[in-house]
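[recover] target loaded
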């Protein structure tokens, strides 16, 4: 003989509410972890930027979107990773404006200053207390070309008819320790180290490595 089992509607309702509550909590936890991971990646690893203006044309043009890889540069600031060469001549970098709050620039590294010496190896010299005189790195312009310590910079990324410094070439510039001399590829319109000087390492955000918009130009830089 079969016996019917009565189910308490109240218990069924409570069980359903508890299950819904558990699933809602798990969903919120997942969202929170996702946001935390996203914030960590965006702050320390990689971040997207929109190019504004044509100072890097034809390499990058207005409204194109790029990914900036931050991790190597961030690691290079930490003592165990001081030997990492995060940025090299020819790299495209994004950095904070030296005198305009909340503004960032994208330019190309033409020269790097000497490495900043550890505090226990400080040597006084013409560059202050951070580097020795023998490490001087100087950028100058001659006959429409860029020279770093009298070595001509081969700027193969520029169109053949692009002048190295525009209409007026600035005086020679000696780079302080841990700084970068940056130039826009579109020299006639670019605001760069010719006007505001070398960019200190602390202002650099990271290296531009990939263009993801427009889709027709999708790919590494």
């Amino acid at each position: 003989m079969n016996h019917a089992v009565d189910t308490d509607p109240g218990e069924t309702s409570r069980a359903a509410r508890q299950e819904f509550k558990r699933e809602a909590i798990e969903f919120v936890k997942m969202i929170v972890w996702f946001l935390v991971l996203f914030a960590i990646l965006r702050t320390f690893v990689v971040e997207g930027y929109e190019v504004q203006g044509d100072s890097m044309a034809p390499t990058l043009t207005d409204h194109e979107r790029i990914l900036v890889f931050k991790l190597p540069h961030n690691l290079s600031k930490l003592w165990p990773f001081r030997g990492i060469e995060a940025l090299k001549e020819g790299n495209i970098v994004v950095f904070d404006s030296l005198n305009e709050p909340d503004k960032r620039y994208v330019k190309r590294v033409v020269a790097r200053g000497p490495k900043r010496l550890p505090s226990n190896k400080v040597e006084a010299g013409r560059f202050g207390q951070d580097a020795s005189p023998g490490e001087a790195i100087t950028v100058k312009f001659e006959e429409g070309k860029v020279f770093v310590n009298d070595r001509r910079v081969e700027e193969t990324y520029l169109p053949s008819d692009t002048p190295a410094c525009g209409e007026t070439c600035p005086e020679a510039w000696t780079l302080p320790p841990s700084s970068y001399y940056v130039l826009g590829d579109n020299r006639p319109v670019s605001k760069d180290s010719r006007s505001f000087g070398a960019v200190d390492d602390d202002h650099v955000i990271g290296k531009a490595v990939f263009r993801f918009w427009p889709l027709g130009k999708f790919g590494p830089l």
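[recover] notes: Residues 9-45 form the longest helix (37 residues).
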